[in-house]
Amino acid sequence: MADPELPIVCARIIAGYTPNPPTGIWPQVRQFTMECALAMKPRTYSNARRLMTMIALFACWVVTVTGCPVTPQRIFTQSNLDRFLRTRLGGHSVTYRFDVSRNLTAAALAVAGVKLRQLPTPTQGDAVRPHSARDRATFVSWANTLSTPLKRQNAQTLLALAGGAGLTAQQIMDAQVTDVEIDGDRAFVTIPGPRPRRIPVRRPWVKMLANGIGAHTSGDAFRAYRLDEYPPNQLQQFLTRNRGELRPSVSRLRSGWLVELIDANLPLEVLLATTGFTTLASLRPYLRYAQSHDAADWAATIAGEVSA
Questions:
Q1: Residue 218 Cα distances to 161, 214, 232, angstroms
Q2: What is the CA radius of gyration of the chain?
Q3: Residue 105 reports pLDDT greater than 90
Q4: How many CA atoms lie within 13 A of 180 on its CB side?
Q5: How does residue 12 score in pLDDT terms, banded at 50, 70 and 90?
Q6: Arithmetic mean of pLDDT over the chain
Q7: Are 117 and 78 in contact (CB under 8 A)?
Q8: Going by C-beta distance under 8 Å and a sequence separation of 6 or more, which residues neighbour residue 98?
Q9: Which one-letter DSSP state was computed for residue 90?
């Protein structure tokens, strides 16, 4: 399954990957995992790492539990996938389980030509309902009163990156100090990957982000141990261990950021470039929380009598 266009960084990740924590079954499934990841044609470091992690976890679990031969047809079965998602990943978030399901079904089709049924797309529901202004004030108070400087800085960084720049949990865990640029009253966050962009941080969050980064000039922006299996797990553990009056939700903080951009009436091209979305359909779940407009109020603009 040669991939002549495979980036060197991806090749290194695939060839050098080992599960963390180590497992004795890994030597049996290593070649299989590598072939599956190569078949998916990753083009970035994060994609290659994510594929290796998910496929390795699944393959190790299947062989350990069932003892089946390490072949695509025996590994990638509907019963194995359903049982894995239900038992091995039962304690993980709906979003993560969906992401694993999506990647494993794609690998099954690419490697074995088997079309498996993936989990349904998570319903947005409360996940996209923005936190209220009162909630955000509560979070700021919580972050500023945690017991140690490291905890305070991690909380401030988490809130500012999600609420001020719209980063997802995975992006927060991937963010490096060097990705953050503080310039007086303005701040920018660079997001690498398939849709690279440089995001201006919303003004109310700039000072908090500066406090969170502090004097650090390198390393992870959110400083915590990374689990290969699911890096955002440590972000969730941080919130669990440092409970406040109300638990912050990264997805709801991001949703608030998105709604604020929609309410700002940005040009559609700018809105897509900033959010990283590729289609306007991705914005649909957030429109219900955006400001409503009466077409009659825009009659002069629609008619071309005044500028937008």
A1: 17, 11, 20
A2: 22
A3: yes
A4: 34
A5: very high
A6: 91
A7: yes
A8: 118, 119, 120, 121, 122
A9: T
Of the candidates 246, 259, 247, the residue with the CA atom closest to the CA atom of residue 285: 259
Residue-by-residue DSSP string for 8-29: HHHHHHHHH---SS--TTHHHH
> 166 is written with which tokens?
């719209």
Q: What are the distances in angstroms from CA 85 to CA 104, 118, 121, 148, 176?
A: 11, 10, 14, 37, 31
Tens of pLDDT, residues 127-153: 688 999 999 999 999 999 999 999 999
Give the integer Cα–Cα distance in Å for 23 and 296: 65
State pTM to two decimals: 0.66
Token duo for residue 15: 């060839």
HEC profile of 155-195? HHHHHHHHHHHCCCHHHHHHCEHHHEEEECCEEEEEECCCC
